[in-house]
Amino acid sequence: ATALLGRTVTAGELWYLCEEWSDRLIPYVVDTHPLVQAALRRDDAILLEGQLGVMRDLDWGAYPYVTSSTCLAGGACAGAGIPPQRIGRVIGVVKAYSTAVGAGPMPTELGDGLGARLRELGQEYGASTGRPRRCGWFDGVAARFAAEVSGFTDLAVMKLDVLDGFETVKICVAYRDGPRVLTTVPHTAAMARVQPVYEELPGWRETSDARTIDELPAEARAFLARIEQVTGAPVSMVGVGREREALITLRDLANPQSPASNPAVGGSR
């Protein structure tokens, strides 16, 4: 009770509060199956947001450092009762660098001042607890694994502006486990001991004022293009700031028939 309200409450007080909350919530508690099916029959656009990330998935994540449910796109079928063939688009949302909260392997984690710099620039602290997040370079191996098991049709690369001003930036393209080079996510024990294999790219000065892909520095576009190549998914949205308008959209993500990403990102692709 203290965690919820900040003070100790009696059972009677809590019961009264629950009754009060229930009066507000009951109108919104319905059987979602007919609701979703009616929307599908009308061909409405349905947007579902997944929790956490693939590496925290109960079945495919870095067990035991996982949650209790599925974090894959398939969760839309199991959780919302949407048939697999009705899923038109799967958008993988990633940051331009890696973050994690809590325990578990994180091959690209930066335990030095660079990690602290990313944390401060990106304000990487838990929204409710204020707990500092672990930060590191973009993990292309984990992102590609997520794209494969969830079937990403698009990538939304957020917080690109956090990397503004770095002389160079890095992308993890493989893991080294002793003499072996791995290009996919291994089991948890191996994940804890691998070393990242990085590609280093030139940095850039400023992206926060860009509102089209052409306004991004060439080096930032090259970074995004390499992410596309490593993950196998096209970048369709880029975040360059906290403001709602600080978003570069390359495809109409609400329209499954929208054409492929602007070649300004992927070059000749």
From TrEMBL:
The keyword Metal-binding applies. GO terms for cellular component: cytoplasm. One of its GO terms (molecular function) is GTP binding. InterPro entries: Adenylosuccinate_synth_dom1, Adenylosuccinate_synth_dom2, Adenylosuccinate_synth_dom3, Adenylosuccinate_synthetase, P-loop_NTPase. It holds the Pfam family Adenylsucc_synt. One of its GO terms (biological process) is 'de novo' AMP biosynthetic process. Its cofactor is Mg(2+). Keywords: GTP-binding, Ligase, Magnesium, Metal-binding, Nucleotide-binding, Purine biosynthesis. The keyword DNA-binding does not apply. Homodimer. This is Adenylosuccinate synthetase.
